[in-house]
Amino acid sequence: MGSPSEPSGLPVEPYKVKVVERIRLPSREEREAALVRAGYNLFNLTSDEVYIDLLTDSGTSAMSDRQWAGLMVGDETYAGSRNYARFESVVRELTGFPEVIPAHQGRAAENLLFSLLVHPGTFVPNNMHFDTTRTHVMRNGGAAVNLAVAEAYRPSDLSPFKGNVDLAKLSALLEREGREKVPLVVVTLTNNTGGGQPVSLANLTAVAALCREHRVPLYLDMCRWAENAYFVREREEGQSHRSIREIGRSLFDLADGATMSAKKDGLVNIGGFVATRDPKLAERLREQLIVFEGFPTYGGLARRDLEAVAIGLVEATDLDYLAHRVGQVRYLAAQLEAGGVPFLKPPGGHGIYLDVRAFLPHLGKSDLPGQALAVELYREGAVRSVEVGSIMFGDGEGASDGALELVRLAIPRRVYTVSHLDYVARTVLAVHARRASVRGFEMTYVPERLRHFTARFRPR
Ligand code: F0G
Question: For residue 8, is it within any domain?
Fold first, then answer.
């Protein structure tokens, strides 16, 4: 069993297409007009203005026929829906966490957990905070601290586990602040902000030991846990014979709980949860849930959505699926590498992260080079990407610590074909060929928080 590979090494798609969605390449004039209308912020583009949408891998997956069928058995009961029961049992079985609290997406789960645990004057370490986790920590008066290993900040370093936590730094923080000031430690699987890079089982084991020693709970931001487990299987000694589910269990067994955006490795368009081993905390989480999201057996979702999550979580652990998914990222990486395009290496689980400083060395930080590159990719081929750098994190405590300036090409799950990826590669190569002429940008509207979503720009 398994999928054969093409000569390029890319595994042949382990699925066939049942429904199609028309897409269309807007003309050059339409693209220029769209950029002006959008204030050069690609979040302001409409989907009709975009040809290949690599803005995010979140909530953009193609669902399977089984998931669509699952929607039809939605039991829309307010309390005690059988879809919730199925969802709860799948999450329990995969993670081993007994308490499962549904939420409509990852940040809702973060809000529930962090508003209970994080208080003014506390510190929340993470390998690297995603923008929403960082914002939830800060909203509750905490400081979001990034403790990724040094190689995470070196785009061409080929280390296999660049998502790892710097253990010396974590130990020093726990020694200095103690459990009174560190309400929880978070580890993000995979490290999205740092290039979709995995965390090793060995590193997480050591993090868990430090947490136990200091009696601080360890929570996983498990959005892309199946992709992380795939890398562990491939790269960590003694793991290659184990299934994704077994490796996942080894990761979860080390933690006290997790927050999940099922919009990633749940293969759905909406959904998430918090899970924990702590029944008292679960009680308080459910109280919060009822106020902000809904009753504990639906948590802000239609019950049919919980059915789709239950199915998607399991589908995401299929080795053929994961080999193809990570294979797509590598396929794109190989074409960019052959053309001399600088990107963060090794390629991660869910996308390519262009290394903006090396791509546009003539632009300084104040020229907003990531924005300039993202705009240029859109102008060239109506490919939408996202800046992950000083605009996303530029308001002081950057989650990239100002050390990484990236443009992410996130690949939606089960959505694009090889020829779409070839087209993306051609677009990036065309911009790379004329990179010296790319001009900088400045902001004309600067929101206070999560500014990349709503900022506006103009060319310099
Ligand atoms: N944690 C990580 C690591 C994420 O990547 C995201 C979302 C979240 C939490 C929040 O989840 O969107 O369901 O509320 N990342 C998306 C992205 C938005 O484009 O990377 P959410």
Answer: no
> How many structural domains compose the chain?
2
- φ, ψ at 229 (rounded to 5°): -65, -35
Residue 49 DSSP symbol: G
- Give per-residue pLDDT as tens, 283-337: 999 999 999 999 999 999 999 999 999 999 999 999 999 999 999 999 999 999 9
What domain range is 180 assigned to? 65-315
Residue 130 Cα to ligand 1 middle (Å): 7
Inside any domain, residue 5: no
Which residue of 53, 114, 132, 274 sits with most ligand 1 atoms within 8 Å of its CB, as the best mutation to test the pocket?
132
Whether the predicted model's global pTM rises above the 0.90 cut:
yes
Tokens of 339: 């053309």
Count of CB atoms situated within 10 Å of the CB of 46:
9
Residue 202 Cα to ligand 1 midpoint, Å, equals 25
Residue where one domain finishes, among candidates 293, 315, 337: 315
442 Cα–ligand 1 center, Å: 26
Question: Confidence class of residue 397 from pLDDT cuts 50, 70 and 90?
Answer: very low
Residues 450-455, mean pLDDT to the nearest whole number = 86
Q: Are residues 335 and 246 in the same domain?
A: no
> What is the residue with the minimal CA distance to atom 8 of ligand 1?
106
Mean pLDDT of 99-114: 98
The residue to mutate among 131, 222, 223, having the most atoms of ligand 1 within 8 angstroms of its beta carbon, is 223
Tens of pLDDT, residues 200-217: 999 999 999 999 999 999
Last residue of a domain, one of 300, 315, 330: 315
Verify that 151 and 250 share a domain, yes or no. yes
Are the C-beta atoms of 373 and 356 separated by less than 8 Å?
A: yes
**CB-based contacts of 444: which residues, under 8 Å, 6+ apart?**
39, 456, 457, 458
Can you state the angle between helices 106-117 and 131-139, rounded to 10 degrees?
30
Pocket test for ligand 1, best of 124, 193, 264 (most atoms within 8 A of CB): 264
